């Protein structure tokens, strides 16, 4: 799993890229990535994934992987990641996906709130 960092360089979640899932620090399923869309565990569209980072509905950067590019914001220094969860929980079922809204313009700002 790959750590996903926030605007302060802290690990906020883990990316399970091979399954297209974002996992909490405790190993719970937070979101899934399908194409460029990110959906929460209830099937609601919560953002877009592109070039190793997630943007919210206002185009602000939510989380990013160390190899992300095209952020448009200044990267903070990375803090050491916590230990990976030993056995991530598997999502029991996938909810019906909402239709993604129009893609917003990229913003050169950090998201203040997390959608998951």
UniProtKB/TrEMBL annotation:
Residue numbers spanned by region Disordered: 84-105
Lineage: superkingdom: Bacteria
Pfam family, one: Bflower
4-fold beta flower domain sequence ranges: 2-111
Name used for this protein in its record: 4-fold beta flower domain-containing protein
Native source species: Rhodoplanes serenus
Lineage, opening ranks: Bacteria, Pseudomonadati, Pseudomonadota, Alphaproteobacteria, Hyphomicrobiales
